[in-house]
Design brief:
Blueprint lengths: L1 H61 L1
């Protein structure tokens, strides 16, 4: 009976470890998505200014 109990306990520990790893992966995915949204918002709001700056730099180099 002891072998069966040890096997069951080991399976429960393995299952809990796998579930926690999956949870951590989901959290990293959410953080990555949030960073992507912030970057897109920043580039969208600064897009016009960057276009103007790069246009002036280009004109200065070719002029």
């Amino acid at each position: 009976m002891s072998k069966i109990k040890n096997w069951a306990v080991n399976k429960v520990v393995e299952f809990q470890t796998a579930r926690e790893e999956g949870q951590g992966l989901a959290e990293y995915g959410l953080i990555l998505a949030l960073i992507a949204v912030v970057c897109i918002a920043a580039l969208t709001s600064l897009g016009g200014d960057l276009t103007n700056i790069l246009g002036r730099v280009s004109a200065g180099l070719t002029g």
